[in-house]
Amino acid sequence: MSIPESPNAVFVYGTLKKGQCRESCWPLQPESIQNASIRANLFDREDYPALGQGENTVVGQLWTFQDNDIDKVIHALDKVEGAEQPGSPDLYHRVIVEAYDDQGGSLGYAYTYMYANDPTEDGFQPMTPDASGKIEWVR
């Protein structure tokens, strides 16, 4: 499967998940929300998580939108996540990742936000996988 230039989905793992404090920041309703995972490392701090490069299984949600809505969604989320804002250093970088279902099958590609710096330098602690080998941020 080739990586699309503009996926129509966003993988979220922290405060933007359904039921979390920033759920209201989504500018549009998605077509669907489903449990998903990606390969990365997850870091925790009192206020929010940070995603970094890695090979752990990070559990979150895949929010899928109409193709013609994704630009509006990304524009809003870039502001929330401090990504690609003119004149300001990035807090997060928007990247494209492959998302997986519970059995490890590909759900396709999605945008997600990775912390722009080394999370440990900003007070984040690495999270360790649970007995099933997965990492999930829950508040």
From TrEMBL:
CDD domains: GGCT_like (cd06661)
Residue ranges of every copy of the Gamma-glutamylcyclotransferase AIG2-like domain listed in the record: 10-121
Pfam families per UniProt: GGACT
Domain of life where this protein originates: Bacteria
InterPro entries hit by this protein: AIG2-like_dom, GGCT-like, GGCT-like_sf
Protein name, per record: AIG2-like family protein
